[in-house]
Every structure is written in C-alpha cells, then in structure tokens.
Amino acid sequence: MKTQLEFLQEIIDLKNKNPETEIRFCVNNEELAEDGRWTAHIIYKVEISPWYIDGGVIMTDEDAIKEAIADDHCDDELNENELDKLVEKIYNTQIKYMICVYTGAG
Fold it and tell me: Rounded to two decimals, what is the model's pTM?
C-alpha cells in the first residue's frame, strides 16, 4: 500500500496535469464519530472520476450515476430509447470529473 505522502504526491501530480479539475474528498460516513468527536482518517485511494450527489449520497461510479439519473426520470413517460438518450445527454453535459480522494478511519 502507498504511504500517505505518496498519496499526497499523487494528488499534486493529478492537479498539476489537470489544473481545472477540482479536488473532492470522499469520507466514509460510517466511520465518523457519532458524538461529533474528530476521527483520524487516512487516504486509501486517489483517482479522477465522475462526481454526482444524489440525495446527499456522493456517487463516483459511472454506471451507478447513470442508473440514478434514469431513476430520476423514469416517470417522464419516455420509452427506453428516449430515456437512454436523456441519461447520456445529462451525464455528458452535467456531470463533472473531479480528483477524488477516498479516506477511511485510520
């Protein structure tokens, strides 16, 4: 496994190669202290991926994001082909890619 310093360097390298791309942290909320205390986290993964928030849940998987978009529009009386086209259009025009930093309790 990479050291924390190696992960930080990876973030810097990605940002230097993609200066317009924002950095986002994905924190596992199941590992946060319930009483508001601080919890130490370590970085376990860094990647450039899509970023979508669906009802407060952060999604970074393309297929899951497209499924969520389709679910949001399934009542729009569209046939399957029309829905697929709408999902692709929304995904390609509204979903941004971010430098995602995944952390877990350390």
Answer: 0.82
